[in-house]
Specification:
Structural class: alpha/beta
Number of strands: 7
Mean pLDDT: 85
Strand order of the largest sheet: 2-1-5-4-3-6-7
Helix content: 25-40%
Shape: globular
CATH topology: Glutaredoxin
Oligomer: single chain
Largest sheet: 7 strands, mixed
Distance between the termini: 70 Å
CATH class: Alpha Beta
Length: 176
């Protein structure tokens, strides 16, 4: 009987924890809030830490491998307009949880080196940054972080010119 009650208590605690985590995942990102810091590696094993980028605007394109083409469209548009601007930097942050466990990380990195994305791609192997940023899976999640480290723009969108023009107007406010 003691074991059954212990299992019930542990089970209920786990369910409560899962429920509270799911509720937190639905909270939308608000413009003006501080962006959670993170450190991720790229395919070359170089670390990129958000807190080290203070003073620059940071454009994050967050997605996973199944929407990579849409992520790349955002990256290409950014590179065309801001590739030479040292006041802003862009990253594609890839949620790597969908990569099958039997695929070695080294293989993935070699493929990324062969098929380079338009902007630096950061590898979120455990999906922690995507969880911090409350990303959705259906479309790229776009986050613009101002030079002080606060969210200045956020949306989920496949590439379209209207959304890009809205993003560009906010970027131009930091870079001109």
């Amino acid at each position: 009987m003691r074991y059954i009650s212990c299992f019930l208590i542990i089970g209920l605690s786990l369910l409560a924890s899962i429920a509270s985590n799911q509720e937190g995942a639905e909270e939308p990102i608000q413009v003006g809030e501080p962006a959670p810091d993170f450190t991720l590696q790229d395919a070359e094993d170089q670390e990129h830490a958000l807190k080290k980028m203070r003073g620059k605007a940071v454009f994050l394109i967050m997605g996973h491998r199944k929407i990579r083409k849409e992520d790349d469209k955002w990256g290409h548009a950014f590179q065309k307009d801001y590739g030479e601007n040292d006041r802003i930097i862009a990253y594609i942050v890839a949620d790597m949880r969908s990569v099958p466990a039997f695929v070695p990380k080294g293989f993935v990195k070699r493929q990324l080196k062969k098929n380079k994305p338009p902007v630096t791609l950061l590898l979120d192997w455990k999906g922690k940054v995507h969880q911090l940023y409350h990303t959705q899976k259906e479309k790229p999640n776009l986050y613009l972080i101002d030079p002080e480290g606060k969210f200045a723009f956020h949306t989920e969108s496949n590439f379209d010119t209207d959304t890009y023009q809205k993003l560009k107007a906010v970027i131009d406010g930091f870079t001109n």
